[in-house]
Structure formats: structure tokens, C-alpha cells
TrEMBL record:
Protein family (similarity comment): Belongs to the MnmG family.
Sequence positions that bind NAD(+): 271-285
Protein name per its UniProtKB record: tRNA uridine 5-carboxymethylaminomethyl modification enzyme MnmG
Gene Ontology, cellular component aspect: cytosol
Species for this entry: Arcobacter caeni
Subcellular location: Cytoplasm
Molecular-function GO terms, alphabetical: flavin adenine dinucleotide binding
UniProt KW NAD keyword: yes
Named cofactor requirement(s): FAD
Binding site for FAD: G9, G10, G11, H12, A13, G14, V121, S177, Q368
GO terms for biological process, alphabetical: tRNA methylation; tRNA wobble uridine modification
Stored HAMAP family: MnmG_GidA (MF_00129)
Keywords: Cytoplasm, FAD, Flavoprotein, NAD, tRNA processing
Domain tRNA uridine 5-carboxymethylaminomethyl modification enzyme C-terminal subdomain positions: 543-614
Length: 620
């Protein structure tokens, strides 16, 4: 074999897959169309956001690259939902897109075991009808490998729409991947069509920022990566600006609905529900008199701004008109017009939890090809596919994260068991155990795995272990320490502005009050006042969630026990109240021997498992 692993595509998924595989000692080849575009951000110049920030932190904790790159290329850092609970906060950074690409390209070129080659993979080399053993490229090169990971993003049979105009492309002005998905279909995979879109970019010199609200970064920005030294982190930050559409904009859009590819039937694929185009928003929310827009710098040069919220595939004359109707953009010059793109994806229920396809051996899919949208979702899958391909070569146990361990576990489980017919993006609401799955504890949850795979070094893991030790000791201390309503305690509470206590309370419940901050913590738990601010913040968060976490952990234990339950051979799923006919049909067809096996079938939700479990117990 020429290589252990071949990765097709140098986008966000492909980068993480290649780096993970190479760093795990596997001879890896990354084949991508334009090496300059390794790590290109096709759409918004930003990484993270609600739930997406979780994915980046988890990926980072396991040893992925996205967080480190964002810390280097970031030009504005914010914690979203900072005033809400830690579980629903999300880190977000504006990035310098050029710097991001430069960094990722450099890392790919300089990672031992990893080779980079520019070409288009036109087909897979397949033997015995369903075993992949390499790839063939457009320049007719053939490379053999033990595993192939496809991460082609929006490129497979990509078709760009701008008004009545259509042209084949993978992304604006880049060639599409025209043959690969045809072969995937011939090999028996269920291939579908989706769409996504992007707004125009405008020349900074033509924008009147004076009429817009400025939107800056955090005063004390936090890095994305657990491996970036927080004490030395002081990036130069650039502002974004806020403006709004208005009734005139909406009129210009709606009077041209008849020319909008989205409505004329020209676009067949479904688009991302939570990132709709402006024509879709104006159509669906006709009662709204304005929509908020963010102007985001594309790079630190601030020559071009991305208009977040104005994604569109309307004809260019309409795009120009609608932009000019917006406050501050009256004289805006467009550098690049917005467009929509339709592309082929592979139904993710074709995949195992390892991201290997069920029907074709040695073939893994990761990223937008699996019907997701977003750099973070793509990168997380890439990392998991890279790790699993490397583990499979060594005949080791696969790496599957459970839903209670990580958002990455939720993402992959949702995709491979439920599937999706529209672009899937991550939300905190998708995670049942979100109180456990916080951004700030991703290293505690996951870094040990990364260390086991050789992706996290000894120094980093030692820091994580120390952090865990201090937090656990502090929690144990507080969970066993009674605070009584003696005179000194009441005086102390009054002095720090805290409500009195009656009789006695456990210290952990006192620290769990929402009003407790680091200064109050120091007074109430003086024996832990010595720990650094970052760690202290974590102890306080853990104390706040202590009771809920205990409850969730009990539920998880219950679920783990439940999944072990065997399903009797003669058990009939037919007629079970609460299960849809589709679910019953699947269960009857697969006849899973245990609830765990049932949980791996696409469409079988935790609620369905509960119903089966209950009925097994009743019928036994
Ligand atoms: P990509 O980043 O697309 O990378 C694919 C890579 O594979 C490219 O480098 C390409 O050259 C290479 N490649 C493809 N085929 C081959 C082949 N046959 N041989 C060799 N190399 C190949 N995400 C959001 O979250 N919100 C949005 O609003 C949003 N809008 C978008 C709008 C547009 C127009 C586009 C194009 C994307 C948008 N995205 C959006 C999606 C986001 O860009 C992707 O989710 C993310 O980049 C997917 O990462 P990926 O690694 O799967 O693929």
C-alpha cells in the first residue's frame, strides 16, 4: 500500500482527519484541489458560537487543531450568553481568513507522516464490489491505501445559483468534484441534494460606519484552545458593525421573488433552516419591518466586510439595490456577490458511529458530505474519522463518544441514527446532558482520550489531571462542610452582601448560589483562595451545578444499565404504544438482541428505547 490513510479534501474536516491520522503514526496523504485553499472559510469569517464553540473546545481537548488556529488567526473574541449559565455560553471568534488558511496550510505541510498533494480525486479504487483500497485522480494518478476518508464539503456536483445564472463549481470560482458522488451512488450509497448560501462581501472604503453601532470583542478575551497560555493571550481585536434591513429593502426583495432561484424551482435541495437567506426571511416573516445585519471584517486588513444576515442568491442587480437601501451601505461597492450552492451529500445513516460507511469497507465520510453545515461540525467529524481510521488499521477498539460525554457524541449519534434531510447544525438543545457538557470542562471530559491516542502531550495531560484533582478536592471539601448560623457566619454573610442562612447548610449549596463570585468564594472558602482565577471560576461553576450534575449522572447510570437489557428473541415490537410504524418496522427487521443494539439503529431515539425497556419488563 502507498499510504495508510488517504484524505480527500483539505477543508475543515479534511485537515483534522489528516492531522489526527498522521499524528497517530499513520502514513497519510491529503489530496485537495487547491493547496492555497486548505482551511478556507467558505462563508462567514468566524469560528464558534453557541454549541459550535463547545464542538471546538471538545475537538481541542482531544488534540484537534481548530482551536489553536483560531487563537492565532482570531481578530475578535467574545463569549456569547456571558450573562447566562456556563452550560449555554459559547465562545466565538472573528477570524482573519487569510491568516487562518496560512496557519492550517503550514501545519499540514509540516506535520510528520503527512503529505499534501493537489489534484481532484475522481474515483475510488474498489475491489470485491465493496472494499475501497485507494483513489484515482483527475491527473490519472492512482494511490493505494488501507483507508480513505472523504471530506468534499459542498464540492460534489456543486451548482452555483445567482439569479437566473447557474454554473458548476465547488465554491465561488473553484472547480466542482463532478464524478465522485456518481460513483458513490453506484456503489449503493444513498446520495441526496442540499443547498446553502452566502452573502455579498463589500469594500470597506465604501461603507459609512458612522451610522452603525459598533460591536467589539470582550475586554478580557479568552482563547479557544486549552493549550494557549491565557496569561499571554492579548490579540489585537477589530470591531464588527450592526445595521438593519428596512421596508424598502424588503420591498426590493419581495418584488423580485419571481426571479429568486429559491422560489422559482431552480433550486431543489433544502437549505439550512437556521441560517436562511434574506429572501426566505422576508417571505416567511413578512410582518417584520427589519432584520439585523452584522458587518464582519474578513481579515485584519479590513478591506472587505461580510454582511452576516444577508445570504442570498437573488440576481446581482437586486443584490446591489437591496444593499444600497440599507443604512450605511448607500454607496457600498460589492467585491463579491452572494450566491447559493447545491451539492450532493451522502445520507449519514449510511454510516457507523465510527463514520465508516456500512456498505463500503474502509471508506469514511466526514464534514458537509454528511449533511452538516458549519466549519465546527465538519472539523469535529474529521477528527473522529481520522482517529477511527487510524485505530482500525491497528485493529484497536473504535473511538465512539457517548451522548453524555460530548457534543461530538451527540452530533455523530444524531447523524448516524436519526439522519437528516436538511443541513444539520449543532444546538445546545440537542444535548440531553448539557449541564455536564460545558465548554470549560471539555478538557476534563476528553483530554485523556487524546492523550491515549498520542494527540495530547504529557505536559498538557498533567495540567488537566492537576485541574481535576484540585476541583474534585474542593468539591469534596465543600460537600462535607456544614456552615451553621453562628454569629460570625451571619456577620460574614452580611459583610459580603449575601442572604442569611437558617440553621445550617452545606458549604457547596452556599457556594452554589447564583450571587457567589470569586471574591465571595475567597471569604467563604479561604482554604481554596490560593487557586488561580481560572480554576476558581471552574470550582464555582461545578458547585453551582453540583446538585443537577448528580441528578444527571444518576440518569446516565440508569441509561447505561438499561442499554445492557436483552430483548427476548420472541419479543414483538408490533403495537407498542408510542412507537411509530416506521420505528416498529425497523425494529422488526433488525431484531436487535439488546437495547444497546437497538440504540444503534437509525431513528431509534432515547424515548423509543424507554418504551421498549418498559415493555420488556412488563412482558417478562
Ligand atoms: P469544505 O470546507 O467545503 O472543504 C472541502 C474541501 O475538499 C475543499 O478544499 C475542496 O477543494 C476539497 N475537495 C472537494 N472535492 C474534492 C475532490 N474530489 N478531490 C480533492 N479535493 C476535493 N456554514 C455555516 O455554518 N453557515 C453558513 O451559513 C454557511 N454557508 C455556506 C455558504 C456557502 C456558499 C458555502 C460554500 C458553505 C457554507 N457553509 C456554511 C458551510 C461551511 O463552509 C462548511 O460547512 C464547511 O466548510 C464544511 O467543511 P468541509 O471540510 O466538510 O468542506
Amino acid at each position: 500500500m502507498d499510504y495508510d490513510v488517504i484524505v480527500v479534501g483539505g477543508g475543515h474536516a479534511g485537515i483534522e482527519a489528516s492531522l489526527a491520522s498522521a499524528r497517530m503514526g499513520k502514513k497519510t496523504l491529503l489530496i485537495t484541489m487547491l493547496v492555497e485553499q486548505i482551511g478556507a472559510a467558505s462563508c462567514n469569517p468566524a469560528v464558534g458560537g453557541l454549541a459550535k464553540g463547545h464542538l471546538v473546545r471538545e475537538l481541542d481537548a482531544i488534540g484537534g487543531e481548530m482551536g489553536l488556529c483560531t487563537d492565532v488567526a482570531g481578530i475578535q473574541f467574545r463569549i456569547l450568553n456571558a450573562s447566562k449559565g456556563a452550560a449555554v455560553q459559547g465562545s466565538r471568534a472573528q477570524i482573519d481568513m487569510d491568516k487562518y488558511r496560512e496557519y492550517m496550510r503550514k501545519v499540514c505541510h509540516n506535520t510528520p507522516n503527512l503529505s499534501v498533494y493537489q489534484d481532484e480525486v475522481s474515483s475510488l479504487l474498489v475491489k470485491n464490489g465493496n472494499e475501497v483500497y485507494g483513489v484515482k485522480t483527475k491527473l490519472t494518478e492512482e494511490f493505494t491505501s488501507k483507508k480513505v476518508i472523504i471530506t468534499t464539503g459542498t464540492f460534489m456536483r456543486g451548482l452555483i445559483h445567482i439569479g437566473e445564472n447557474r454554473y458548476e463549481a465547488g465554491r465561488a470560482w473553484e472547480l466542482p468534484s463532478s464524478t465522485l458522488s456518481i460513483q458513490l451512488k453506484e456503489l449503493g450509497l444513498n446520495v441526496g441534494r442540499l443547498k446553502t448560501g452566502t452573502p455579498s462581501r463589500i469594500d470597506a472604503n465604501s461603507i459609512d460606519f458612522s451610522v452603525m453601532d459598533m460591536h467589539g470583542g470582550d475586554i478580557n478575551p479568552s482563547p479557544f484552545s486549552f493549550r494557549t497560555d491565557k496569561s499571554k493571550f492579548s490579540p489585537t481585536q477589530f470591531p464588527c458593525y450592526i445595521t438593519y434591513t428596512n421596508l424598502e429593502t424588503h420591498e426590493k426583495i419581495s418584488s423580485n421573488f419571481y426571479r429568486a432561484p429559491l422560489f422559482t424551482g431552480q433550486i431543489e435541495g433544502l437549505g439550512p433552516r437556521y441560517c436562511p437567506s434574506i429572501e426566505d426571511k422576508v417571505n416567511r416573516f413578512a410582518e417584520r419591518d427589519r432584520h439585523q445585519l452584522f458587518l464582519e471584517p474578513q481579515t485584519a486588513m479590513c478591506t472587505e466586510y461580510y454582511i452576516n444576515g444577508l445570504s442570498t442568491s437573488l440576481p446581482i442587480d437586486v443584490q446591489k439595490d437591496m444593499i444600497h437601501s440599507i443604512a450605511g451601505l448607500e454607496n457600498a461597492k460589492v467585491v463579491r456577490y452572494g450566491y447559493a450552492i447545491e451539492y450532493d451529500y451522502v445520507d449519514p445513516t449510511e454510516l457507523k458511529h465510527t463514520l465508516e460507511t456500512k456498505k463500503i469497507k474502509n471508506l469514511y465520510n466526514a464534514g458537509q458530505i454528511n449533511a452538516t453545515t458549519g466549519y465546527e461540525e465538519a472539523a469535529a467529524q474529521g477528527l473522529m474519522a481520522g482517529i477511527n481510521a487510524a485505530l482500525a488499521i491497528d485493529e484497536k477498539e473504535p473511538f465512539i463518544l457517548r451522548r453524555d460525554e460530548a457534543y461530538i457524541g451527540v452530533l455523530i449519534d444524531d447523524l448516524v441514527t436519526k439522519g437528516t434531510n436538511e443541513p444539520y447544525r449543532m444546538f445546545t438543545s440537542r444535548a440531553e446532558y448539557r449541564l455536564l457538557l460545558r465548554e470549560e470542562n471539555a478538557d476534563l471530559r476528553l483530554s485523556q482520550y487524546g492523550h491515549n491516542f498520542g494527540l495530547i502531550d504529557d505536559i498538557t495531560i498533567a495540567k488537566v489531571e492537576n485541574k481535576r484533582k484540585v476541583i474534585d478536592e474542593a468539591l469534596e471539601f465543600m460537600a462535607n462542610e456544614w456552615v451553621t448560623s453562628k454569629k460570625e457566619t451571619l456577620e460574614l454573610l452580611e459583610a459580603i452582601g449575601e442572604e442569611r442562612i437558617n440553621d445550617k447548610v452545606l458549604l457547596i449549596d452556599l457556594i452554589g448560589r447564583n450571587s457567589i463570585d470569586a471574591a465571595k468564594f475567597d471569604k467563604l472558602v479561604p482554604n481554596y483562595a490560593f487557586v488561580d482565577d481560572y480554576l476558581k471560576e471552574q470550582i464555582i461553576i461545578e458547585a453551582k451545578y453540583y446538585r443537577y450534575i448528580q441528578k444527571q449522572q444518576k440518569q446516565i447510570e440508569k441509561m447505561k444499565k438499561m442499554l445492557k437489557a436483552t430483548i427476548p428473541e420472541n419479543f414483538s415490537f408490533k403495537g407498542l404504544a408510542g412507537l411509530s410504524n416506521e420505528v416498529i418496522e425497523k425494529l422488526e427487521r433488525h431484531r436487535p438482541p439488546t437495547l444497546f443494539n437497538a440504540s444503534l439503529i437509525s431513528g431509534i431515539t432515547p424515548a423509543a428505547l424507554d418504551i421498549i425497556h418498559l415493555n420488556i419488563n412488563i412482558k417478562q
